[in-house]
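Box 3.1 A note on notation
Throughout this textbook, protein chains are presented in two layers. The first layer is the amino acid sequence; the second is a token string describing backbone geometry. Keep the layers aligned when reading.
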Amino acid sequence: MISLGNLGESAVYHDLLKRGHPVYFSMAEGAKFDFISDINGKLRSIEVKSSATRNRADTGYVVKIKRSKRKKEEDFDNTRIDILAVYIEPLDKIIYFNAKLIKQKTAIVIPDVAKVLDFRRSSMLR
């Protein structure tokens, strides 16, 4: 069975390709991002996070943004990537964020506001 993380990476990879953005993978061990993509002539580093978990208030989805590699967790560092791509599995939606604007270190909540999801989904890739 495919993991939620792999499902999210696959969804983002295919979404970027459908939008006409070439996607490149790092061959280096311990890369600080999941993909590099050429977006409007600029290479952008992209970290993908996935969620299927509702928050306690049931008003949105909790997305853990800590980076986990080999049983080691690191707080989210908005200086090492350009775009945070969040895949919400129950909605089959991808939301792209300018990573530099994210101040949280461990988790974010994606609210159940369809207009917000659609706006964020498209605005980062223009």
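DSSP finds two helices and ten strands in the chain. The chain has a mean pLDDT of 87.
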